[in-house]
Amino acid sequence: MNIIKAAHIFYDYVLRDENDNIVETTHALTDFDLEVEKGSFVCLLGHNGCGKSTFARLINALNLPKEGTLLVDGMDTKDGRLTLNIREKAGMVFQNPDNQIISNVVEEDVAFGPENIGVPREEIIKRVDEAIDAVGMSAYRYKSPNQLSGGQKQRVAIAGIMAMRPECIVFDEPTAMLDPDGRKEVLEIAHRLNREEGITVVLITHYMEEAVNADRIVVMEKGRIALDKNGQKMDGSPREIFSKVDDLRALALTVPVITELAHELRTEGIPIPEGILTRTELVEALKPYF
Amino acid sequence: MLRDITIGQFYPVDSAIHRLDPRTKLAGTFVFLVSLFMTKSVIGYLLATAALVCCIRLSRVPFKFITKGLKAILAVLLISVSFNLFLTQGEIIFRIGFLKVTKEGLKIAGFMAIRLIYLVIGSSVMTLTTTPTQLTDGLEKSLGFLNKLNIPVHEIAMMMAIALRFIPILIEETDKIMKAQQARGADFESGNIIRRAKALVPILVPLFVSAFRRAADLANAMEARCYHGGAGRTKMRPLEYSAADKKAYIIMLIYILIIAAADFIGF
Asked: Is A167 exposed, middle or buried (CB count within 10 Å of its CB: 0-12, 13-18, 19+)?
């Protein structure tokens, strides 16, 4: 079952001058296809301007595709009557933790989403309890977001989405403005929600290390899924994708440090397998040589 | 200087005042302000002082914290006091050059200063004991009748709540920008007023740009969380009056009646 189904999507950013004449058109998405299976953890990778954030905004019906259809749990994002249902189903966590928290009290901010969709009062309290608990912020329930660290703020933002009981959460570079500790916190929660609550996660990121534990990696380039040198779509498990070190380098992307080390060792003639992702794997692969 | 702005800040302790309904506190502040401008008698001011001191003690907010807000209005205070002091006609007490101080001027200036100070302290007590969300909820509910006049009360209340949320963030940002400009040799401290005002331009421009960017981000985040105006919205903690609120309203009524009476009798 696919929760997100994008078929032949086109999206342009159009820059107009004062007289409404088109000055510049940027093709953000060109004939883009992607299907995301329910309950999976998908990572969208790509260089700046490859269209990955644009796609995130389309999932949330913040923007509408110029051409093509995007179905979220079977609902067409172009249908204005379904917009709120779509946003309830597919929540979105943004990059800047400060700019997505509306209230001065953690609890009130988490309640913002359910209040908007008209959930009755007792039910809101129940959902807020659960959502704050799910991100481990119960101790900060009555605190002001201004007193929290970046990672904690981002967890509050995630709780705000969880309180709407979504089936899918799109994370648009949620860790870009966080320190390493905050980054770890947020990623752990994304994985836990995926594992324990069965929430589909679409993670958009610049950090290759964050993609290692995903179920699937999709590499984007110039508004579509990137191709490797054999003309295959760069879409698969982390092991498959990160074994294509040279293809990733051609797209100005790096691979996780461990994978890169393994790759360099291989090119130097040590016969270890491609696509090593973790330190333990590398140690295991190197053991026979000691 | 920026850190001294206590308006709109919340002081998180549990007190009788904190527990009151925001509508009660709004009404109370309004009554207090009306009483300040209504009274002309010394007794009236004494009563207002007593009421204010009682409220501050009950609120358990340290007095020092409340008076911090006064620094921000010091300039306004000095200007209005000196205008009243020097420009009121009447019985002259003494002169300094062409400036003359009159008995009436002294009295008016004194009252004016007390009024302004009490006004700021009174409203600080309200904002310090009420979370911004409660405050805007209270405003939204007590001004709900304006909806009939096609005034978008919910939207205005939401804007206020967001503005209050972003005050500390923007203050921090201003601080950062100032430091960044100072690191590159900008000078905000020396020179006359015009020079200093000019020096503010390199702070304000980046601040505005970033504020607009934040506003766009926030609008997106709100939409993504299904915000679509006030229609069909529910509340996690709807406002409800308690017994304490009723008592507070009765006290307010008695207070304003006594002040009116004192004025009428003419103390």
From this structure: middle
Measure Cα distances from A90 to A26, A113, A115, B224 in Å.
Answer: 26, 12, 17, 9
All residues of chain A having their beta carbon less than 8 Å from the beta carbon of residue B169 are: 98, 146
B228 and A111 within 8 Å at the Cβ level: the answer is no
Residue B132: pLDDT over 60 = yes
* Residue B263 pLDDT: 80
SS3 call for B250: helix
Q: How far is B112 from chain A (nearest CA, A)?
A: 35
Cβ-proximal residues to B83 (8 Å cutoff; 6+ apart), any chain: none
Q: According to the model, what pLDDT value does residue A104 have?
A: 82
Tell me: pLDDT of B131 over 60: yes
Instruction: Please report the beta strands in B97-174, taking only residues with DSSP state E, as ranges in sequence order.
Output: 99-102
Cβ within 8 Å, pair A114-B234: yes
By Cβ distance, the residue of B220, B228, B232 closest to A94 is B220
Closest to B210 in 3D by CA, of B161, B177, B165, B168: B177
Contact A218, A36 (CB under 8 A): no
Residue B1's pLDDT is 44
Please give the model's pTM, rounded to 2 decimal places. 0.80
pLDDT score of B66 more than 50 = yes
Report CA-CA distances (Å) from B155 to A167, B94, B140, B165, B231.
30, 54, 9, 15, 11
Domains of chain A: 2-255 (3.40.50.300)
At residue A85 the predicted structure's pLDDT band, cuts being 50, 70 and 90, is very high
